[in-house]
Design brief:
heterodimer; A: mainly alpha; 16 helices; B: 78 residues; mainly alpha; Non-ribosomal Peptide Synthetase Peptidyl Carrier Protein, Chain A
């Protein structure tokens, strides 16, 4: 059994939801039950991979102590950059070990969902440094990190937001609304992931061995659609399931294909990841760069910020050439967009209808080309062509 | 404080329009984006000596001149 896959999972999910729905309608807190059910489900799902379960529990044990010790050090010694740096490093270490060992065919410290859980932990550490979080509670932190609907593939929620929901008693009307929304999202997610994404994938397989330009364009579009329906469908199911358990997990996709520029695209595609990176990497990197006057002007600082941000985004997906190139590509696109949008010409035309249409068309194709890189097809084609000549 | 804040915003947004309507949504009007927010954080720190964190407030809490003023007042800026 795995998350959101196969009939068994959905039967277990429906059965497990019953107590949550009863609690919800009786205006009781659902939080403790959610934590209990998360633990049961994690045990069932990770059971066939005892090593992964072991690593997950070990990770949890280590990061809880890291968070508690770091927050203690903040209270005791105040805000120190060096300590924060080490806390971040320790939180990242298991992920780095997992990804590096993966390159050599090992699975040290690797478990399903490690990339997502690491980002959640980093959020707690960095917001503790900022002074927004003073002292995390053990149960709600574990509940946040192990919350089963989003454990293995997001959306990446934020601890403070999550904890408010976890402790909430929803009124009957509020919970009714949540439940309705949750069921609707799950059904829509099932349609996306198991029907539409499967259809796109079927077409994709038919043309996977063709490298003529028209097939590559078709491949890019089909892959983009496949990826969208697959991941947006998954995210919808995760958000919908969260609703049933009284947690308003943020949405991950918001009609990405209507974006009129690449900046807007990243506000609509894998939103919780890109906003996480914006808040915890981009803005901190650029703030630091501007403060220390590392660059000649703010535009150079922003350019460097975009490059660092998107390359890390690529690496987060996996340490392969395709993902690195994907990150680099989007970093360049964002930096160029930023420069371009400061031009007087852009301000003059940006609200004109013809310009918006053109801008949408260009953005859509740039995004699709990005998916061609992401899919691995781009470098594969380059390789095939190099062999041919 | 208001005048100083407006000067900062005018410089960051590169547009005098920020002065016209203090209730105007700077994000929706395209005057502010994520880089502008970062610059604002640095400028506020330099000008008023108040450290703000990028995740302390929601995007909507930042979106107008009046709202930024409110945040600064909460932080004890006169």
């Amino acid at each position: 059994m795995s998350f959101y896959d196969g009939l068994t999972f959905f039967i277990v999910l429906v059965l497990g939801s019953v107590p949550a729905v009863v609690l919800g309608f009786r205006e009781k807190r659902i939080g403790n039950y959610t934590l209990l059910f998360s633990l049961v489900l994690i045990f069932i799902i990770y059971r066939k991979n005892p090593m992964e379960l072991f690593y997950l529990l070990l990770y949890l044990f280590l990061v809880w102590h890291l968070i508690a010790l770091y927050q203690y050090s903040l209270r005791r010694f105040g805000k120190r950059k060096a300590i924060c740096f080490h806390a971040v490093l320790f939180a990242l270490l298991p992920l780095i070990i997992a990804k590096l060992s993966g390159m050599f065919g090992h699975h040290w410290f690797s478990f399903l969902g490690i990339s997502y859980i690491t980002f959640k932990v980093l959020q707690i550490i960095l917001e503790s440094y900022d002074g927004i979080i003073e002292k995390s509670s053990f149960t709600s932190t574990v509940g946040f990190l192990l919350f089963f609907p989003t454990l293995c593939s997001g959306p990446i929620d934020r601890s403070r937001r999550f904890e408010t929901d976890l402790g909430k008693r929803w009124s009957r009307e509020e919970y009714g609304g949540l439940l309705q929304k949750g069921i609707w999202k799950i059904l829509l997610g099932i349609l996306y992931k198991f029907v539409l994404s499967a259809i796109a994938y079927g077409f994709l397989e038919k043309i996977s061995g063709r490298y003529a330009p028209q097939f590559l364009i078709l491949y890019a579009y089909l892959y983009g659609l496949y990826l969208f329906f697959d991941f947006a469908g998954y995210s919808l199911m995760a958000v919908g399931t969260s609703c049933i358990f009284g947690i308003c997990t943020p949405d991950n996709f918001n009609k990405p294909f209507i974006s009129k520029d690449i900046k807007e695209f990243w506000d609509r595609w894998h939103i919780t990841l890109s906003h996480w990176l914006r808040d915890f990497l981009f803005s901190r990197y650029v703030t630091d760069a501007i403060r220390k006057k590392k660059f000649k002007n703010r535009m150079d600082a922003a350019t460097a910020g975009f490059m660092v941000n998107m390359v890390v985004m690529g690496m987060w997906h996996g340490l392969t050439k395709d993902y690195l190139l994907y990150g680099l590509y989007h970093g360049i696109l964002l930096a160029v967009t930023e420069r371009y949008q400061k031009k007087k010409w852009y301000r003059k035309v940006k609200n004109k209808r013809w310009y918006q249409l053109l801008s949408w068309f260009v953005t859509m194709n740039l995004a699709m080309f990005g998916f061609l890189i992401f899919s691995g097809k781009f470098l594969e084609t380059v390789k095939v062509m190099l062999n041919y000549f | 404080m208001e005048e100083k804040l407006l000067e900062i915003l005018e410089k960051i947004c590169d547009d005098e329009a920020v002065r016209e309507d203090l209730e105007m949504d700077l994000m929706e009007e395209g005057l502010m984006d994520s880089i502008a927010v970062v610059e604002l954080i640095v400028a506020i720190e330099e000008e008023f000596g108040v450290a703000l964190s990028p995740t302390e407030y929601e995007k909507e809490d930042w979106s107008t001149v009046r709202k930024i003023e409110k945040i600064l007042k909460e932080k004890g800026v006169q």
